[in-house]
């Protein structure tokens, strides 16, 4: 689904870096010529790093979209450390050449935002999920499914920016955060989610489907079973009642038939007595 993306193609978070690099490059070029080359390289790097292009979301209501550009480094069954429930974990590693804006993978409501200070080890390592500085967004989809997506700082990244808060409504593809200079995104999904990516796959924010969520929650299915059993039991109890009613309704017919038989027998007895006495 394509819609207007209300953000400049060069992220505002990068304007100070790009502006400073450009001013320094021009000044040093005027003063020292080729000695300005490293400053021009930094300016070009900052320009590409802070790009933030618009993306089109797939028209699939059950799809969980990638929250960032990068490469899949984890697809595994584990425990969501924020909700303490079994989950499917999918991690996206972003190098310094990927787009670093984060976008919501679902349509839903934010229930909590939890920031945790930490280290700055290589974000591609598994221990980064537990040791690095990180910011978790806990959200609930429109169908009631719980999803957690976590911004994790990396070896070079030193700044996590999150623009959403508890109670906010997010739409798929909506920009909600930014991490500067290399990082990682962990997504924790319900245990019955079906992963559609594998380790090593390259993904694009909003455009790539990470997984698909069944529309109904397991709890709802479990609760529906006793209800169905209760309905069946009630039906079984009612059925015999109908049978008794039917049997009762047939009693008058039985009584009429018995009366006819007795009347015929009486007539036969009288005929025999008349013939005998006659």
Put the structure in a nutshell:
With 278 residues, the chain is of the alpha+beta class.
What would you report as the Rg, rounded to the nearest angstrom?
A: 37 Å
Q: Find the count of extended strands (DSSP E, 2+ residues).
A: 14
CATH-level-4 superfamily name of the largest domain: Glucose Permease (Domain IIA)
Biggest sheet descriptor? 8 strands, antiparallel
Q: What's the arrangement of strands in the largest beta sheet? A: 9-5-6-7-11-3-2-13
What percent of residues adopt helix (DSSP H or I)? 25-40%
CATH class category name of the largest domain: Mainly Beta
Low-confidence stretches: 217-257
Instruction: Please report which band the strand proportion falls in: under 5%, 5-15%, 15-25%, 25-35%, 35-45% or over 45%.
Output: 25-35%
Q: How much is the average pLDDT?
A: 79
Spell the H/E element sequence.
HHEEEEEHEEEEEEEEEH
The number of domains: 3
Report the total helices.
4
Keywords: Cell membrane, Decarboxylase, Lipid biosynthesis, Lipid metabolism, Lyase, Membrane, Phospholipid biosynthesis, Phospholipid metabolism, Pyruvate, Transmembrane, Transmembrane helix, Zymogen
EC number: 4.1.1.65
Catalytic activity: a 1,2-diacyl-sn-glycero-3-phospho-L-serine + H(+) = a 1,2-diacyl-sn-glycero-3-phosphoethanolamine + CO2
Cofactor: pyruvate
């Amino acid at each position: 689904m394509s819609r207007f993306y209300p953000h400049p193609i060069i992220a505002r978070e990068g304007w100070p870096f790009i502006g400073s690099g450009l001013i320094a490059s021009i000044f040093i070029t005027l003063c020292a010529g080729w000695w300005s080359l490293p400053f021009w390289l930094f300016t070009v790097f900052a320009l590409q790093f802070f790009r933030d292009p618009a993306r089109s979301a797939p028209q699939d209501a059950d799809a969980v979209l990638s929250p960032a550009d990068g490469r899949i480094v984890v697809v595994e069954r584990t425990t969501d450390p924020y909700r303490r429930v079994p989950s499917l974990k999918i991690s996206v590693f972003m190098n310094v050449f990927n787009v670093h804006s984060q976008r919501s993978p679902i349509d839903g409501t934010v229930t909590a935002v939890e920031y945790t200070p930490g280290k700055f080890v290589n974000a591609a390592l598994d221990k980064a999920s537990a040791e690095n500085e990180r910011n978790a967004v806990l959200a609930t989809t429109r169908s009631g499914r719980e999803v957690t997506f976590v911004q994790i700082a990396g070896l070079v990244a030193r700044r996590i920016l999150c623009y959403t808060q508890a109670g906010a409504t997010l739409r798929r593809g909506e920009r909600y955060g930014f991490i500067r200079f290399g990082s990682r995104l962990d997504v924790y999904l319900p245990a019955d989610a079906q992963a559609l990516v594998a380790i090593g796959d390259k993904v694009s924010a909003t455009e790539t489907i990470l997984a698909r969520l069944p529309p109904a929650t397991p709890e709802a299915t479990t609760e529906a079973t006793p209800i169905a059993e209760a309905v069946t039991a009630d039906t079984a109890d009612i059925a015999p009642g109908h049978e008794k009613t039917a049997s009762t309704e047939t009693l008058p017919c039985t009584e009429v038939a018995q009366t006819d038989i007795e009347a015929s027998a009486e007539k036969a007895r009288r005929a025999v007595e008349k013939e005998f006495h006659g």
